[in-house]
Amino acid sequence: xxxxxxxxxxxxxxxxxxxxxxxxxxxxxxxxxxxxxxxxxxxxxxxxxxxxxxxxxxxxxxxxxxxxxxxxxxxxxxxxxxxxxxxxxxxxxxxxxxxxxxxxxxxxxxxxxxxxxxxxxxxxxxxxxxxxxxxxxxxxxxxxxxxxxxxxxxxxxxxxxxxxxxxxxxxxxxxxxxxxxxxxxxxxxxxxxxxxxxxxxxxxxxxxxxx
Amino acid sequence: xxxxxxxxxxxxxxxxxxxxxxxxxxxxxxxxxxxxxxxxxxxxxxxxxxxxxxxxxxxxxxxxxxxxxxxxxxxxxxxxxxxxxxxxxxxxxxxxxxxxxxxxxxxxxxxxxxxxxxxxxxxxxxxxxxxxxxxxxxxxxxxxxxxxxxxxxxxxxxxxxxxxxxxxxxxxxxxxxxxxxxxxxxxxxxxxxxxxxxxxxxxxxxxxxxx
Amino acid sequence: xxxxxxxxxxxxxxxxxxxxxxxxxxxxxxxxxxxxxxxxxxxxxxxxxxxxxxxxxxxxxxxxxxxxxxxxxxxxxxxxxxxxxxxxxxxxxxxxxxxxxxxxxxxxxxxxxxxxxxxxxxxxxxxxxxxxxxxxxxxxxxxxxxxxxxxxxxxxxxxxxxxxxxxxxxxxxxxxxxxxxxxxxxxxxxxxxxxxxxxxxxxxxxxxxxx
Amino acid sequence: xxxxxxxxxxxxxxxxxxxxxxxxxxxxxxxxxxxxxxxxxxxxxxxxxxxxxxxxxxxxxxxxxxxxxxxxxxxxxxxxxxxxxxxxxxxxxxxxxxxxxxxxxxxxxxxxxxxxxxxxxxxxxxxxxxxxxxxxxxxxxxxxxxxxxxxxxxxxxxxxxxxxxxxxxxxxxxxxxxxxxxxxxxxxxxxxxxxxxxxxxxxxxxxxxxx
Amino acid sequence: xxxxxxxxxxxxxxxxxxxxxxxxxxxxxxxxxxxxxxxxxxxxxxxxxxxxxxxxxxxxxxxxxxxxxxxxxxxxxxxxxxxxxxxxxxxxxxxxxxxxxxxxxxxxxxxxxxxxxxxxxxxxxxxxxxxxxxxxxxxxxxxxxxxxxxxxxxxxxxxxxxxxxxxxxxxxxxxxxxxxxxxxxxxxxxxxxxxxxxxxxxxxxxxxxxx
Amino acid sequence: xxxxxxxxxxxxxxxxxxxxxxxxxxxxxxxxxxxxxxxxxxxxxxxxxxxxxxxxxxxxxxxxxxxxxxxxxxxxxxxxxxxxxxxxxxxxxxxxxxxxxxxxxxxxxxxxxxxxxxxxxxxxxxxxxxxxxxxxxxxxxxxxxxxxxxxxxxxxxxxxxxxxxxxxxxxxxxxxxxxxxxxxxxxxxxxxxxxxxxxxxxxxxxxxxxx
Lengths: 211, 211, 211, 211, 211, 211
What we know:
- Six copies of one chain form a homohexamer.
- By secondary structure, the first copy, chain A, is of the alpha+beta class.
- Chain A has helices at 8-13, 175-180, 186-193, 197-207, and strands spanning 52-53, 68-73, 87-93, 98-103, 109-115, 118-123, 130-135, 140-143, 149-153, 159-165, 173-174.
- In chain A, a hairpin with a 6-residue loop joins β6 and β7.
- β8 of chain C pairs antiparallel with β1 (52-53) of chain E, so a sheet runs across the interface.
């Protein structure tokens, strides 16, 4: 009796390290990453749980000064997206809550509103034009890679939104934290942003910066 | 009185065709696309509406034999995603509805369940292993690029889900349509799939194929 | 007497780990791969044998139900192609032999006929159009990445063909094996493919599937 | 008498549109760009001037409030870099002059100091750490793609520096201009940056913003 | 009676320019290419002939001083490979024939010997090591992108070989032609290659150079 | 008292291996590289020194037969550029000094003249056209990836120039060294370059080759 010929593929391809003979590369977070992502787990240890993430079912805490909760499903939380060029996060905003101005150095963001009314905007680098729009349930908007953007709950109910990214690790640089939540010397911050020294000191105090 | 020096950037950069001096490339759908996407609209004609899409607020019709509705926000519908490497679509499934086996030749898919209970699975090319999981509200799962996957409403209520993609144009190849909804000769289909000729004829009749 | 100045390059560049100071990255198959491929062997251990492969000189066995033999020169067999974005495989088809419907999730395929008459086709995802052509000695045809394709020996002599790929690891997902050679539950297969349960059971039995 | 065989290549390759049969793609700035850059000029009209740029020999004016002059050799000014993934710009800083906080959404920047003493820094998105260093003649420093960075002349003489980029079109988003030199409503700026309304109004007045 | 739901995809996706709604981009050679390749033909005008090439069935003429014939299936000859990252060419070598030292600036090359005995080699840029091997029927060897390589018929019969490339347009720079078959001034050639002026003049005369 | 919400990001993202949660990947030169570069150093051990390089402040020795000094800031010398797609090198040329014909297999080169008069040229692969130009202080010129180019000090003073590259590891293949500074058999060199055997022997003797 004969084997169906297509047994040939797995047998042949399994002859060597099997990492790449699969069409995915689940992150082995115990090894150092490289520019393209994390090394792949051996196929024998990959399970469906690697491709599934339950962590977006509960909001991040909104008990903070901006009334915003955040939960991410990037490669560090969701190893199955390693090498796939896509990831997602959850955003919860109390009434009046907001996401401060920030950018994602490594990804474009596509925001989907699930509940409430969200005003979302990004700023062009060409002419500083502000592209701003108010989104309601199941509206989507996209912010290009690396450009400053923000989101505000401008409705009367909480906002729930999901942001998809064009990278497994979009990165997040939040402008006020980048400027004020560190030891960046106050005079340099003031000079390079045109802000008043008093304003810089006030925000360093608020956000936990020094110098 | 002097201009702030940074006026220099837009003036200088606007000297030539401004298409690339922006950090985005909104699709001009009136021009032929290339391997990397569509040519960019001139910046003067870009508006916030290019980056916004309202078309996912209404489900695609589920009045069909699989009880599934589909709406896409790919580059052809949502020009702002051109060149950004991300897009999204909406899926509605009646009770018992399903998405037949299909693949996306150009993208990984990240599915987010918004309502109901969805059983989602993909099949590895390495060992034909089926990675299958039942997802509930705000669970996510990812299917690697190019691999066969499917989704079924296995709950007692309708399902609403959103699929994000790692490309502005993921492509969709639905296996039963690829095999049976065309003029692919019945004997070739049968030979290359191991299906019985009668089965092939039956599905060609069902799905609108010929030969 | 002086050294020619260009000795400077190797000396200087060899100062650190030399892996990248070569213009190639031969796969070290003993280390886990990442999304971009395998880590590079140290240059001291690279030899011409890494860039040469003899394994396509003998056909894979065609003693199987489809009369097809297959031999691959992908990164796992041919470490020199690691990182180079190209690989090749050999196909032998007995008279009447065929390659079942399959796709390569990670590469386009360019097929070259060396002996006999081969009917090759792929299916568009846009309109399910079948692009099919009969190839003779030294004819070539290309199948785009991720699309279903097949090949049949439609001549009176054996076929020998070679398929080149746009990746060092194209991946191979063979539709009948993906659907029937695993534990994918029969009712789910039937529902998601529109096939009859009896047909699914018959092919699971034929191809070694369960459930 | 015979032609050297290698005449074959240009003749054969010139059979069709010759744009891609060269190993470069000089920008045709009269046509709309796409996500990968501008269409290529026909080879017949390409000259050495396309690959040469004289525009960095004269500084941009430093007669402005930051004492900084800028000149770019990006694709819009220097068509020969189209598709090549590299470009360069010139920076002149008077004593005390500076480049405000900004980022390049599409490129990493490598700065080379030619004259004077330049303090250069960038801010990590991971922990808001400020990587700051004072550079002298022929020192180099790199800022990763998309991260906020700045430069200040901290010496007693003018600074001349050149910044190389990993893209033909790095993009430049200058934080104070993005926030204050547009019609971004004052209350939204204040809310999303934690700045005081008075501060925002002051900078809008200074930089030419409205609302 | 109802339409199968999946009619939805082509209808919906065809709403706009259909170029990208297919999973391929057949070159429209009548339009200027860009850095990523040629614009796509409209799907209505795409036929199977775009994906098929018959031009490798006849050898290029070997009536030349190196006894070598060449035929290419690059994008300019074979529009179906546009955007797919793979192409192929045919090489015929008389007894004693050879391919002079050359490189492909944009692709790695994988050579497959179909008839005869071919000695193939490439030179590393790291330590100038020559990786050289004699190949027989169906042996394969790979040369990394951009590195100098050559091939010689070292057998007693003609050689037929096929070279696959990791690009639709690999480019070919043949060292002796680059140095001697142009108006590159003799003294500059001599200085920058360390060759004697007499040698340069001799080869310019042989290959059709001037100056 | 409450933490500002944005503390959430670093805490959450630091949950796993932090290599990729930064927006850079400083090379860990102690580990083997892969096709995309070196593995990343752990963020805790990254310092500003990784992004800074002082090694271009001193010229490479010009005490050699071409009167040229070279110093590189590629990934092996400058770990901060790993994964960033940009690097730089310094070139010093005595009066009459030159850089022999060479190519960079992995990068385009943008040359900037800092002192003196430099004649720079590259050769097209399409028609062997020599694009040559004499550059003075702060002129720039670009050479496309993989194409042969050279530089000569054609002035009366020393030349100082800097070359930026579109890769962290451009590679350097110097034609005379590739042909003559190794054990490449003299007869093969002669045959594949059209050079006279005597010329080849003379250059092997000059450059340290054998055979």
